[in-house]
Amino acid sequence: FCTPCLQECLKPKKPVCGVCRSTLSPGSRALDLEKQIETTETTCNGCNKKMYLSKMRSHAASCSKYQNYIMEGVKAVTKEPLHNTRNFPNRFTFPCPYCSEKNFDQEGLVEHCKALHTMDAKQVVCPICASMPWGDPNYRSANFMEHLQRRHRFSYDTFVVGDYDADEDDMMAQVLMRSLRDK
After folding, report:
1. Where do the domains of the chain lie?
2. Tell me: the pLDDT tens digits for 54-82?
3. Which of 50, 68, 94, 114 could in theory staple to 127 by disulfide, Cβ–Cβ 3.0 to 4.6 A?
4. d(Cα 159, Cα 167) in Å, to the nearest integer?
5. Measured distance CA(39)–CA(56) in Å, rounded
6. Cα 132–135–141 angle (5° rounding)?
7. pLDDT above 60: residue 106
8. Residue limits of the C2HC RNF-type domain (predicted)?
9. Whether 109 contacts 91, CB under 8 Å
């Protein structure tokens, strides 16, 4: 994970797993994983030298052939035109529609509105729904607080695996298949 994503997951109020978003509780070191990293061999993609995974990071920092290997990959990727990121809506952080405070994740927006705007009756557009392909950016909810508590008790990312354009029936089928696999 990159640092900004990890920082978001480790917020002091609600640290969550970066993959499944379940709440993290204080735990112990993953000694079995540490041992696996210490005993698993790998090969440097630059110089083909064999080493343990635990040594790979320091080796990669000093291996000029590995640096060249990385730069070749960067050049190959940057030759293709970059996607215009303005065409992709931000589905990770949202402003409060009442006070315009910014950068809430979905759960944070729900908590913020419950704490500060429970009695605000102003009709507002749900920023979470407006960011979705099926959302109407002009629709003003008659009871935004009830909408938040009913529709946004969970993150869409839990059920939508990167394909926000899939129709509801396809998503439901995927969720049901995943729930059967998880048993």
Report:
1. 41-79, 94-152
2. 999 889 888 999 888 888 877 776 655 55
3. 94
4. 12
5. 12
6. 130
7. yes
8. 44-63
9. no
